[in-house]
Structure formats: C-alpha cells, structure tokens
Amino acid sequence: MRIAQVSPLFESVPPKYYGGTERVVSYLTEELVAQGHDVTLYASGDSQTRARLRPIGRQSLRLDPECIDQIAHHVLMLEHVAREAHTFDLIHFHIDYLHFPLSRRLPVPHVTTLHGRLDIPDLVPLYREFGEVPVISISDSQRRPLPWLNWQATVHHGLPATLLPFSPGPGRYLAFLGRISPEKRVDRAIEVARRIGMPLRIAAKVAPVDQRYFDEQIEPLLAQPHVEYLGEIAEAEKAAFLGGAAALLFLIDWPEPFGLAMIESLACGTPVIAWHCGSVPEVLREGVSGFVVGSLDQAERAVASIDIIDRKACRKAFEERFTASAMAGNYLRVYRELITQQLKAAPAGT
C-alpha cells in the first residue's frame, strides 16, 4: 500500500526530546515500513526514518531560532501533499484540522487522527462544517465532546516492543514524566511523594506558554528535599528513568486524550498511579497495571500499596494492548475500509 503520513512540524520525527504526536507518527511510520508498505513521511528536515522523507524546512520548528510563523511552514507542506496526492493510495494526517479545506477536495482517500483535546467550544462550528471528514480517536473518552463526528475507529497508541526494556525492580523513587503545565498537576505528584516520604524525580519540559506558571507556582516546590528536577530528558534516557521508578505518578487534571507516558511506564514494568480523568480508565487495569485514583488520599494509599502490583503483569498489559504492531494493524484496517469505500463510490469506468 502507498501511504502518506503527514506530521506536525513542531518537533522532528521522532522528537529529540518531548513530543507526543510526532513520536507516535514515527512509531507508526517505521512499523508500516517494516510490514512492507511504501510510506512517504512529510515532516521536518531533521527527521529520521526508513520511509521516504519529504522534508519541510531544515529542522523542527521548536528548535529553529529563525522560525517566527509556524503556520507558514504547515501551509507549504500541505501544498506539497496536494501536489503529490495522486501518487498515494491513502493519506493519513496528524495535524488536527488544519488541512480540512484541502482534504475534502483530495482525489484519494484520507483519514485524520485527532491527537488533541476536543472539549473546546471554538471547535464545534468548525467540526460541524467538516462533519464528513473521516477521523480516528486515540481513546473512546476523547470522542465525548463531539460524538457526532465521522469516527472510523479508536486506535490506541503503541510503542515498538523492544523500545523500552522490562525492569524487574524494585523501584527506588516515584517518577513524573512529561511537561509542566497546570493540567498535568506536578504539584499533586510533589505533595503525594511528600506525604508518603518517597523521593520524586521529575523529568519534564516547560513550554514558553507555561513559564510563568512554572516560575510562580512550581519552582518554589522544587526546593523540597524529596524532589529532584531533571528538566527535559532525551528518548534514550527514558528506560533508566522509568525502569528505576517504583511508580509513575500521572495525576492529571484534564481530559487527557491518551497519555503516552502511561504505556511507556508499563513497557518498563513500572505501574502507574493516575487520576480518574480522560483516557486513564481505558489505559490502566485497576489493580493489575496500576491504580486509578480520585483524591490525594487515594493516591497516597495507592503508593503505599504499590508493591502488590506485579511488574511482569504491567509489561504483559503493554505487550497485549499497546505495541506499535497492534497500532499499525488497527490503522491498516481503517485504511483498507476507506479505500474500499472510495472504490465503491467511484463512477463506473473511472
């Protein structure tokens, strides 16, 4: 199958540091290539892939000091996609709704994975207008604000099975991985670790939009003796960071569409203690791969009970549900169905 993957340009594919969507695009692209498909990846020029790379710009926009207008780069990419669309059997977009006016006019089947939150009022009239565009959710929870979209499937994220090795433990500290922002609630993680008397290691990015929040509300908390702030870590550092932890604290305060850090942790055998929000109940199996909590007291008790979670069971949960191979297989089923639908709808003789 000739497949185009269209990635955001904010980070490289895969990202050098933090980056959820671009990381998933990388895992999917490489798995499709490994399965014998002809894949073209539209991404930043510093991306690394075994697919055919169509580079847009020199490097990821977040790391480009000369980039002022990020949208301009994406519009340029969409022109390249439109020009080459006839060479593909299907085009898979990962750039939210930016391409919708273009994609409804494309001559080939296309689908869009929506990677972000959908509980934003501004999105309603836009998605009403483009209600026929085929889309994929990354969790069933993500669909709730817009259940009437043209949903094709829910496809959970997946990681290469060999990416993060199993660590039998026991872990020596609690971990927080991701980015520091109000909705990620690293403050909750700091408080739970203080209550239980365990070290907390924080590996997290601070985006410019969250710098003031970090400076005023989080940085003063980092001076506590049980807290170690590592900053943003690279992909190669994740195995040791997550594998050495007793548990990952994922005490979010927003409808997280998926939460890649949860399955990264499970791949290492490290259980997850997560707030009952968004996709969390879909990803975790209560008492098997971690605990789902709804208060700081519950989170404290979960940490105290973390030794009852079998780390081998965490790894097994990852292998059964969240590998890149499983993810690619689920996407391929959608691709084939959309191609079949287009062939059936084509006028006779075309």
TrEMBL record:
It comes from the Bacteria. Residues 171-310 form the Glycosyl transferase family domain. Transmembrane segments: none annotated. Gene3D superfamilies: Glycogen Phosphorylase B. Residues 18-127 form the Glycosyltransferase subfamily 4-like N-terminal domain. Pfam families: Glyco_transf_4 (PF13439), Glycos_transf_1 (PF00534). InterPro entries: Glyco_trans_1 (IPR001296), Glyco_trans_4-like_N (IPR028098), Glycosyltransferase_grp1 (IPR050194). This is Glycosyltransferase.
